[in-house]
From TrEMBL:
Highest taxon above the source species: Bacteria
This protein's name: histidine kinase
PROSITE patterns associated with the record: HIS_KIN
EC top class, as a word: transferase
Record flagged with keyword Transferase: yes
Natural source organism: Roseicyclus persicicus
Pfam families assigned to the protein according to its UniProt record, in alphabetical order: HATPase_c (PF02518)
SUPFAM superfamilies noted in UniProt: ATPase domain of HSP90 chaperone/DNA topoisomerase II/histidine kinase, Homodimeric domain of signal transducing histidine kinase
Reaction(s) catalysed (UniProt annotation): ATP + protein L-histidine = ADP + protein N-phospho-L-histidine
Coiled-coil ranges (or none): 216-243
EC number(s) reported in the record: 2.7.13.3
Amino acid sequence: MANTLSGRFLILTIIFVMLAEVFIFVPSIARFREDYLLARLERAQIASLALLATDGMIDDELERELLENAEVLNVVLRRDAVRQLILSSDEMPVIAATYDLRDPPAWVLMRDALARLANPEPQVIRVIGEPVREAGLLIEVTMPAAPLRMAMIDYGLRILALSAVISIFTAVLLFVSVRRLMVTPIKRVVSSMTAYAEAPEDASRIIVPRGRVRELRDAEDALQSLQTELTSALKQRERLAQLGEAVAKISHDLRNMLSVATLVADRLETSEDPTVQRIAPKLVASLSRAINLTEATLAFGRAQEPAPKLDRVALRELALDVVENDRLDAGEAAPDYLCDVPAGLTLRADPEQLHRVLSNLVRNARQALASGDRPGRIRIAGRDTDEGWVIEVSDTGPGLPKKALDHLFRPFQGGARKGGSGLGLAICAELVRGHGGRLELAATGPDGTTFRISLPAGLAA
């Protein structure tokens, strides 16, 4: 029980309440002692007044009875600085201590009370006070200290017993409250986490926040958000794995088909037709890249892209080749292309991977222009900087939709057009990261969209 949250609350509550009662006990016992002594002074004064009313004409038996009723041994009245013994017992005991109750400081009362509790010896004490404030009247009594100490002990035990009852009652209430308000909700959260850990792909096991305590509710909300994102990521990973497996199964047969197409394209190079001679090398190059892709089984989500094979790349020639391929693919619907790359700009990159990146970006730009209702233009720009190289692909389309912006570079979620999978941008981002660079959205809006590729000069593949 001591290792549980509610059990520790219970123990701490009992300890703290008992400590509070200890601090209350000292002034309480001091006040009890003062009241006890004042009561004896009042009784002694009543006895002395009875004696004064008869002018001292009482027998010894009545005098002894008055002293016993007042629980004192002697009674002395001081009137106008004159000390007069009114009532007295047969024996005159030795006085061990004298206490003056005429406005004593609180610390003096507490000190004397603790000293009396600690002293078990049967002593006789003198008490001076003014129980009834008459002009010039002061009363003084002598009394045994043992009954006072016993009364104080009895009072202290009752105080401690009451404190124990209050402590236990308060602790039980706190124990029940803590279990209901904190322990039970925490156990529910732990149970939900355990159930979710058994099958994190199951969205029905995501916690539903129900806490009433603000801090606990915040924790449940954060846990729900974390579990939702994790479940989504696991489902996405599963889809990517399935996609990779499917591509791996067809890659072999597709490679054979592409090999046959390559042989046919090689035959076309011997044609004397100028148009065929111009197109055939591009067809052969495209088929070669497709064969390389199938051989490497570059299925996104099944395995990471291979490390880039860095080489010196003439960016303008590569960009022009990308533009020419895209123009052939677009046919009559091809937009205007602008290659704004200096003729002598050379960078270090994997030419095949950089070609894939630019091809994907240009194709996305062309598809964005097709969704608009105005003539468009695609621009490829490049420049070198102190840190490395910057390549920008921009279009004059209508801009990216909100869905694409919210899930940019995330496969199956960042598609910019209806039916799109969003794999193109995700593949581009991974290939650029493999070069040690980054792909980012530089701008988008009604005037168009620009993607920026930043490659560092010191490439670390």
